[in-house]
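Researcher: Next sequence.
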Amino acid sequence: MWRSLLVGMLWMPLWAVAQEVQFSAGIESFRWEEFDRVDGHSLLQETGKRHFFGVKSDMAVSPVLYFGGGARLFSGVVDYDGETQLAVPAFSRTKYQGWNIEADFSRLLLPVEMTKSDRTLWITMGLGHERWVRDIRDGETIYGDPVAGYVEEYAISYARLGTKYADGDKWSLSGGIKYPIHAEESIGFGRFGYDDPELEPEGVLSFYTTLVYQLSPSWSIDMRYDSYRFERSAIRFLTKDGTRVKDIGTIGVCEPDDPVKDLCVMQPQSHQDTLSLMMTMRF
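Model: Next structure:
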């Protein structure tokens, strides 16, 4: 919680002094995939469309330094194509709802005076916090047997570093690397009678890029690719009222050499990719 409050404190004062405010809305193609830790095969894929709405503000700290902040809401229902703990193919739907806040800094590296044109080159940095609820609904196997769903909640703090090339007010292209500084995941196993396990997937570097084309001084069309990459989390043993639960073959993936055979769970290696198209209004 303190991470979101910190970023929010950095962002909110911009409304009083912002030189530009942007509102955007669009649709994104979403993909989430998880991989087996032994042979690397795909355990599940979630694909579909999500919708979002965002607001952003910018201010000039100096002629070469800009500071901005933004927020975004997103939601959507996507297809779930995975398998049970016994590797039986299963299908369902997953509902996503979440929000994102981000503070960013831009430093002018190559000004107009050096290029003798309207083209500029910037270095960009950002700090953000994102939360979402992943509601995996009840589904069924390929044999028609019911499969119980559950809810996961994610909280991600991340940093960005990249560059931006702008051709005056015509278009701009930016991109760089993104790193999850800290990731938390809560799994809603309360519906099965267990305590909710808390996991911390390990973040790794991923990439992002954005192309902005100005339709008019007030309107632009933006195309963006964004991503997350996570290695598998550490194993957490399931508990009921604080006491470990023995493995009865119903849920969880334990280490093969675990002599105790307690019930356990982990978040597999996971990839998230989004490709979005949005309209942005500036004033």
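Model: The first helix runs from residue 2 to 11. The first strand starts at residue 20 and ends at 35.
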